[in-house]
């Protein structure tokens, strides 16, 4: 959009038809309007410009100013009418044409926009800079020949440049004229033979069109005379890797990493791209070696350890990744993502003491990050610190209200935490909230069902939820055990026996599964077999006093 003062110096048409007093009045309104326009009070500015126009109806500049305000307010049709009036009164002001073209563009009338630029450039001097806009409109209209002709005019006016060559190449490539695109690239290289960027651009086009061998020739030729060309070394290495020339590829990429022209920031960026683009196998072969070189070369750069940790995590080496993240945090604790990654790995490794320690440190720096409270809450929950877990999870939930998925995760954990804290109604409410968000959250369905069963509360609902969980996860021993226990609590002992036997047959049964199996058998009157299953449970969990009592008394205790 043209600024307020762009056209204020333009001559006013037909001044002779206006008395001096009227002229002063019109200029007063115009000046006041300009003042409010600069202050961005467009409503008052518009009123004043309209008053000025009433006094001086043939003033092109006032029409222009009104058109500006209307266009800013997205009243494009009205703006168009006013700028057309301005142009009918004065065809010598380039800013009138530019605003008109902009309005046509916003209205989607690219043909009229192009005509407006064409008329201005043909009529007025010193308007060559608007050839760029005209060329862009031609491209949008797919008038590629006109666009090329316009870019040639720009080149004639301003000389050869990367911007123009790039635009011409895009057109040629759009029209599948690879040779013309390459010819333009050769022109640019000939004009600036020391510019590595132009070699890289030419190589990029060749690679994109499956002409890797020719790209290699360009790169090797440039590297021969420019040994410090680290970016060319990187591209060459990638091409060699794809050809299977692993030894040459590794040699060249290590040369690039050792080049003083390749900054540590660029090395880190490259490894970040590798992490996304390379397969785990290639990451192990290329990325990890480069990550090791990076941290050995730059041991005091936190981001170097971070990206190496990212690479290690990507190939499943979580323990080593965690070590790199911790080293990164020792150097610079300002990167929240590193804290989060460290906590994620520690949680997966079930290192809950470390999760508590690291999350507490992170919360000192980032007290308003909900995910940190989530990890802190998980650790407290796993360690059965139920009150602390509830406090952390509730606070994190409040901080995360805009992130519904994270709120759902908090609700899922709060159901467990409140149950552990014997606040059962709050537990059920949290589970219900989690299921409102995701009715197929099987972990919540399972835990909710189990807790209801333990309390013998709403067993019909518990059975329905547990049945759904088992139906969708028929080989999950934990879910099967819950279903068996819900059936047990409902007195459906024969059905419960079938389900618990299915759970044990998965091979993932734990002490509680065998204990439940014994309880069910006892209810079915099979005391001897019940005792045998309790003994199996005892072997898996020697510290259960209740099992000892059941076995000794050959009696069920609940």
From TrEMBL:
Membrane spanning segments where? Answer: none
Start and end residues of the TPR repeats are: 26-59, 60-93, 408-441, 511-544
List, alphabetically, the Pfam families matched. ANAPC3, TPR_16, TPR_19, TPR_8
Key words, A-Z: Repeat, TPR repeat
The protein here is known as Tetratricopeptide repeat protein
Originating organism: Fulvivirga marina
């Amino acid at each position: 959009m043209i600024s307020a003062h762009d056209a204020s110096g333009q001559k006013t048409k037909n001044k002779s038809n206006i008395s001096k007093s009227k002229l002063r009045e019109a200029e007063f309104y115009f000046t006041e309007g300009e003042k409010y326009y600069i202050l961005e009070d467009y409503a008052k500015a518009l009123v004043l410009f309209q008053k000025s126009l009433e006094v001086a109806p043939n003033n092109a500049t006032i029409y222009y100013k009104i058109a500006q305000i209307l266009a800013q307010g997205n009243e494009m049709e009205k703006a168009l009418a006013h700028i057309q009036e301005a142009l009918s009164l004065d065809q010598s002001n380039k800013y009138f044409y530019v605003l008109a073209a902009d309005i046509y563009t916003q209205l989607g009338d690219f043909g009229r926009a192009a005509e407006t630029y064409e008329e201005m450039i043909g009529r007025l001097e010193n308007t060559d800079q608007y050839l760029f806009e005209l060329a862009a409109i031609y491209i949008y209209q797919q008038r590629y020949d006109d666009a090329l002709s316009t870019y040639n005019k720009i080149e004639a006016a301003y000389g050869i440049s990367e911007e123009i060559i790039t635009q011409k190449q895009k057109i040629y490539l759009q029209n599948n004229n690879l040779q013309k695109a390459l010819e333009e690239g050769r022109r640019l290289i000939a004009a600036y033979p020391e510019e590595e960027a132009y070699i890289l651009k030419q190589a990029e086009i060749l690679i994109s069109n499956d002409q890797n061998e020719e790209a290699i020739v360009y790169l090797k030729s440039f590297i021969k005379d420019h040994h410090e060309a680290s970016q060319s070394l990187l591209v060459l290495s990638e091409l060699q890797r794809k050809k299977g020339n692993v030894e040459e590829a590794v040699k060249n990429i290590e040369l690039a990493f050792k080049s003083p022209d390749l900054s540590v920031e660029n090395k880190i960026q490259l490894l970040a791209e590798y992490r996304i683009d390379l397969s785990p196998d290639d990451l192990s072969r290329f990325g990890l070696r480069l990550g090791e070189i990076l941290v050995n070369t730059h041991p005091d750069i936190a981001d170097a350890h971070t990206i190496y940790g990212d690479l290690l995590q990507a190939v499943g080496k979580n323990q080593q990744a965690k070590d790199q993240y911790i080293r990164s945090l020792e150097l610079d604790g300002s990167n929240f993502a590193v804290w989060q990654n460290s906590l994620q790995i520690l949680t997966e490794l079930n290192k809950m003491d470390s999760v508590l320690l690291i999350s507490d440190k992170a919360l000192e720096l980032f007290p308003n990050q909900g995910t940190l409270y989530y990890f802190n809450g998980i650790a407290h929950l796993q360690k059965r610190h139920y009150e602390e877990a509830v406090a952390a999870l509730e606070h994190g939930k409040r901080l995360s209200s805009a992130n519904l998925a994270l709120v759902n995760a908090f609700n899922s954990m709060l159901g467990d935490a409140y149950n552990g804290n014997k606040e059962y109604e709050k537990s059920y409410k949290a589970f219900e909230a989690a299921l409102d968000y995701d009715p197929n959250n099987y972990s919540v369905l399972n835990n909710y069902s189990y807790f209801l069963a333990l309390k013998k509360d709403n067993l019909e609902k518990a059975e329905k939820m547990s049945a759904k969980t088992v139906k969708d996860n028929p080989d999950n021993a934990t879910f099967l055990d819950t279903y068996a226990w819900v059936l047990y609590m409902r007195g459906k002992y024969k059905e419960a026996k079938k389900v618990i036997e299915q759970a044990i047959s998965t091979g993932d049964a734990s002490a509680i599964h065998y204990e439940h199996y014994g309880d069910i058998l006892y209810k079915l009157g099979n005391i001897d077999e019940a005792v045998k299953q309790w003994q199996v449970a005892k072997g898996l969990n020697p510290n259960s006093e209740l099992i000892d009592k059941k076995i000794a008394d050959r009696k069920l205790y609940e």
